[in-house]
Amino acid sequence: MFFVYVIRSEVNGNFYVGMTENVDVRLMQHNRGYTRSTKAHKPWTLFFFELFETRIEARKREVYLKSGSGKELIKQKWASSTAK
Questions:
Q1: Residue 31 CB neighbours (<10 A)
Q2: Domains, the chain, ordered by start
């Protein structure tokens, strides 16, 4: 099983999209500074994740979420999750 995950920086509110087989371990790696692209913006919190049976399906979703349309979807999900 593969996960596509979205994390959010507690420092500046940026989102990061990634793919992994273990979300908990991957989040820990981001928060310990093991990933160069996220190191400067830690700490990170998990916003959401999606489960896929194959790496190919997960990769397609990751690529979509990193696209302009995917970024808009993430922003909409964030707005609806924080709406009162």
A1: 17
A2: 2-82 (3.40.1440)
